[in-house]
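Severity: low
Component: inverse-folding endpoint
Summary: output formatting inconsistent between runs
Steps to reproduce: submit the following structure tokens with default settings.
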């Protein structure tokens, strides 16, 4: 553990992982029922279900019970201010539209941070039953069988940008989504292909696992990328904003180091930061 951290990242992950697993199991079980009630937030396509709210409340309550002095933020409004120096960023169902339609891609994402730096993260995919984890300086792992143990993750090493499979996402606002599609149209001819899975944390974990070579998006909130970004970074991907700074709501690019600079420059030339 780094001596300047207020808590051991491994202990924080040990707290978050079983909570995320439990919530993911409950979400999976809910798919056999009549389905949750659904309402809209910022736009008609920005949906929330009663289970998003339940999941976030459950996660926040469990964390607060174990670490009452920590801060907590969440997509559905969780807001706890603490003085421990550790904060938590929670996306209870990242990819709610996928969840509503029973599509793979939705996940439960929990990250612990010190300042703006994620130091522990877990992303659980209920439908694929995969658990992605990372701690700062401790590497990233995909949950394995009990006998084999977790599998270390390593990002891909694509031979060129032209051979790269790249993921992206779109905003809920129709106008912004249209502008993002225009950027995509100018970019796709320089790549092997594009994938759109519908959940930022899923995309970032796919970069970590080497299943896609890169992922970019604009307009993300911290809870969208905190856990997945740490997992991708600890798997060897380069993670940052398009201008080379830290990931932010302005932009995020996670990619194999071999293509990061070229892809970032292509996206900036094509207006990805201006949408």
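Observed output (run 2 of 3):
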């Amino acid at each position: 553990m780094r001596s300047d951290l207020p808590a051991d990242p491994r202990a924080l992950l040990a707290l978050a992982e079983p909570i995320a697993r439990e919530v993911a199991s409950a979400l999976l079980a809910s798919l056999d029922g009549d389905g949750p009630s659904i309402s809209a937030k910022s736009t008609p396509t920005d949906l929330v279900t009663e289970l998003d709210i339940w999941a976030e409340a459950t996660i926040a309550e469990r964390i607060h019970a174990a670490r009452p002095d920590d801060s907590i933020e969440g997509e559905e409004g969780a807001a706890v201010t603490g003085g421990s120096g550790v904060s938590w960023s929670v996306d209870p169902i990242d990819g709610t539209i996928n969840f509503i339609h029973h599509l793979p891609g939705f996940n439960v994402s929990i990250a612990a941070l010190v300042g703006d730096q994620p130091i522990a993260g877990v992303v659980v995919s209920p439908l694929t039953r995969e658990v992605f984890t990372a701690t700062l300086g401790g590497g990233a792992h995909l949950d394995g069988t009990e006998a084999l143990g977790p599998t270390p993750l390593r990002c891909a090493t694509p031979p060129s940008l032209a051979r790269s499979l790249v993921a992206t996402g779109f905003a809920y606002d129709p106008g912004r989504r249209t502008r993002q599609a225009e950027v995509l149209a100018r970019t796709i001819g320089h790549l092997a292909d594009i994938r759109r899975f519908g959940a930022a944390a899923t995309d970032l974990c796919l970069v970590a696992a080497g299943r896609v070579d890169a992922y970019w998006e604009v307009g993300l909130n911290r809870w969208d990328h905190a856990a997945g970004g740490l997992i991708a970074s600890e798997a060897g991907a380069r993670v940052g904003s398009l201008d080379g700074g830290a990931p932010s709501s302005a932009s995020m690019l996670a990619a194999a180091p071999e293509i990061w600079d070229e892809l970032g420059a292509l996206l900036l030339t094509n207006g990805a930061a201006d949408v």
